[in-house]
Amino acid sequence: MPVFKAPFNGYSVKFSPFYESRLAVATAQNFGILGNGRIHVLELAPGAPGVTESVSYDTADAVYDVCWSESHDSVLIAAIGDGSVKIYDTALPPPSNPIRSFQEHAREVQSVDYNPTRRDSFLTSSWDDTVKLWAMDRPASVRTFKEHAYCVYQAVWNPKHGDVFASASGDCTLRIWDVREPGSTMIIPAHDFEILSCDWNKYDDCILATSSVDKTVKVWDVRSYRVPLAVLNGHGYAVRKVKFSPHRRSLIASCSYDMSVCLWDYMVEDALVGRYDHHTEFAVGIDMSVLVEGLMASTGWDELVYVWQQGMDPRAS
Amino acid sequence: MEFASPEQRRLETIRSHIDTSPTNDQSSSLFLNATASSASPFFKEDSYSVVLPEKLDTGKWNVYRSKRSPTKLVSRFPDHPEIGTLHDNFVHAVETYAENKYLGTRVRSDGTIGEYSWMTYGEAASERQAIGSGLLFHGVNQGDCVGLYFINRPEWLVVDHACAAYSFVSVPLYDTLGPDAVKFVVNHANLQAIFCVPQTLNILLSFLAEIPSIRLIVVVGGADEHLPSLPRGTGVTIVSYQKLLSQGRSSLHPFSPPKPEDIATICYTSGTTGTPKGVVLTHGNLIANVAGSSVEAEFFPSDVYISYLPLAHIYERANQIMGVYGGVAVGFYQGDVFKLMDDFAVLRPTIFCSVPRLYNRIYDGITSAVKSSGVVKKRLFEIAYNSKKQAIINGRTPSAFWDKLVFNKIKEKLGGRVRFMGSGASPLSPDVMDFLRICFGCSVREGYGMTETSCVISAMDDGDNLSGHVGSPNPACEVKLVDVPEMNYTSDDQPYPRGEICVRGPIIFKGYYKDEEQTREILDGDGWLHTGDIGLWLPGGRLKIIDRKKNIFKLAQGEYIAPEKIENVYTKCRFVSQCFIHGDSFNSSLVAIVSVDPEVMKDWAASEGIKYEHLGQLCNDPRVRKTVLAEMDDLGREAQLRGFEFAKAVTLVPEPFTLENGLLTPTFKIKRPQAKAYFAEAISKMYAEIAASNPIPSKL
Fold it and tell me: Where are the WD repeats (chain A)?
């Protein structure tokens, strides 16, 4: 299976929604503590085990997250440690990039998510405790959502409703927002420890998953959020990212500081259906391809990016 | 939370992801029963020792014991009280761990270096039977002394076990000993047989006629055809180790096991002056010491130990006995300390016992590597170091995050598996100890002991994070401090009682071989051994070494210094009217404070055309200091001082040392502690100068 060795530590990996063989990877020097960052755009060679880098962009600070535009196949957006948000167009020559840079967040930007239904806007979340809404055609952010009391590690659009999103924070709450409303519409105290990630179910717009420092992944139904639908135990350390499958209703992928990537079916009793131990350092980035069923990607502090088919060994080539 | 810098904020944020996770460890819900311990008269909260009265009638509570065995001194392993001798200990190991790796070497028979190849406990056992039988074959009798005159390698331990199994007395000789010392030891102990290597064989042959007791020389690592043949009539046989093995195998004898009270070994210590002294240790002495230590620090069959400290030293010897008890695999270094790091990388030991000199080198190597690693890496290291240090000081479990980020790479330098570091033989500076604890993330413990006590007198307890002391008494002995009025050390001293460290218990040696007079000097009628070290009791019953009773001290590299002798040499210098030589175990060189002769100084300055306003100014002139030191050096060479006995820097003072300024005794001897305090600033300045002119090596 394809493996890419980056010069820096991996932080995030995302499949292109337009090309099944294209990925973007966010990386940072010195574990993202101090130093530069780099964004890699990778191409999987069809039918061969190789990965080639088509382009890369250097940044002055760590890149913590990256996402692809849903409207332009060559555009991607990066969340940078210095509080900036940068937009790149891979169709343009490198000197023209980044095509935009927004310096609004006061602290590290930890996540970026493109609106999949309206396809004209995106969200960023930051350690300055805010979430910001941006439109591609505006020179500054459209709106700032400031309610969380600590770092917001992730903000994700609802897959069906173009105005609804969820945010996961170190203040131990998950919040649901509607951009038409003045404040959050729902506050779920989902974990007793910091919440590091969240994602919406792609088949049921009321179901969410959260992951936390408490080593668990929890699945929630916003219609009855007093108790979780499921609590998934199995990681040995904080769970850094959680992601719902775009193809199977009850399948969840997660990655953790315990260096493993896990696959869960939250509907069945023995929920842990797969565990991958291919990373040798913290596993912090994961994605599942929308275009190819079962194709997964992960990255971590071991500077490696793996792409593999579910059920196979990521290390087997 | 506010942080000084973004990188600190990032580190803290990620660290909190890892460290604040709920723990799966249920043991935290178990608490010690506080009532039980406070109800006992022996125990105090947070104490490592218990205090008992020395004599019931006088009622003075001044004897300290380990709280781990307050009512009875340990003399046998608590789990295996049937082990009374080194032979029993090895038999126990062979029965329990027969198939386990025991002795490993990476030196191949052709002298090249490769991977470690191992001998199991079972194989070592049959080899030691053959060696013992071979010695009997050559007429060595039970109770005879057998010398070991070569550096650490598997055969050393096999021979030592053979001695234990057949009741020979092993007499180790440092491979660095010169011909005169070897000659003395061989004759003094009346050695019948001696094991050597080709290099040390040549030394032996150079004075063969002067060591008539020797009947058998066994050459380890030498081929028979290359061995010299001796003229008939010398009565000495030279055989190779291999030949002795095969001779033994063809005439195997049953063991003749020793009794616990039998002599196991005679260890010759160099001493400060005069001839070596033979420390007589019984099997019971050694077993007691190791059994006591094992109560606090256990070795396991999964452990790998690196052997590089001389086996002739009691510290390494005791560790080996402990290793056998635990079924440890012992890998030997290739024989070159400068390649030790390479051996570490291949062996990947879990236990590392060493001396401050090597730890200081590791410290210097890492700090200078960090300094030259660039701003970013240096900054990361500093943040990680300080955070982990704070966690340890505050009694919290330090974050695994710092290890992952910074320290695991450093740990890899020692193979990555070290879980226990021991330090002994001279004091480890607290800075270096903290540094080792932080960088290697393992238990780092300092011990204190001497050959006369079969090794450990006291050692740091597990989980004691205070550095700068040598811990609580070995459960196999009791310790008291005796007033030394002439040096102003008493049990009434505030804040902590002070005095000469005295030790009693089953670990105390039988005496110096054939030297009752010296034995009586150190061992009193009540069985107390007077160490000559001055200690104080820190809170919690932990011992701290602060001085030597005699005016003798050790330098960092372990050399003993008798300052009066050196002062007498230097006062012959024309500029010097009085001289105070200072040195301590944290520095490897001596410095001098010299009270100058004003007349000589004036005349000399006039002849050199040096202008000055007052004598003090002249004393501070670097040209003057240089000239005086050069003349002192000349006198030192004339008097044949050894290299480390030379003062490496000098401070000149215009005023004399007198009774009035408190620097002299009524008999006109220098009051050393007072002089040290009086000139503290000048002394530290001189060491700074020495350090500045000798940059530390940048590589390990």
Answer: 58-98, 104-144, 147-187, 190-230, 234-274, 278-317
